[in-house]
Structures are given as C-alpha cells and as structure tokens.
Here is the input.
Amino acid sequence: MESGAVNSTTTLAEIRAQIDTLDRQIVSLIAERQKRVIAAGSLKSDEQAVRAPQRVEQVITKVRALADEAGASPDVVEKTYRALIASFIALELEHHRG
Here is the structure.
C-alpha cells in the first residue's frame, strides 16, 4: 500500500496527522510560488499587467485539467486557485506600488 494511504483500519487521528503533513507541504509550495509571483510582479509594467485576467483564466483552465487527472474535484481546485490568485495579485500590487 502506498505511504499515507487511507484504509478501513486508519483512525481519525492518523488521517488528521496525514492532513497536517500535507498542509506543511502545501504551505511550503505556496511560499515557493509566492517568491516567483513577486519576481514576476517586478517585471510587470503596470497594475493591469499584474491583474492579467487572461493569464488567470489560463491558469484556471490548466489547474482544472490537472485536478481531473489527479482525481481531485475541478470545482474545488478552481475555487482554491481563484482565492490563491486573488491573494497573490493583492500581494503583487503591494510590491508593485512600492
């Protein structure tokens, strides 16, 4: 059985510990993404370039497909990414405005 797999003998405490481990990994990946978002923001000429609505939709299309391939809910992934992107746009705007 794969590491971290859930089966009928897995306890709630074990599942929560696995989720905690995943949360640590997710936060670490968000931090890595943030570094790149800030770097990209420094290369953008104006606030419209920061907002980049076409790019947002490209990312959403991509992550919905990735979610489907991974067996995740595309709707949950889309909502999560829209919140993530909105927060990163706000952060980018802060940095862009100096």
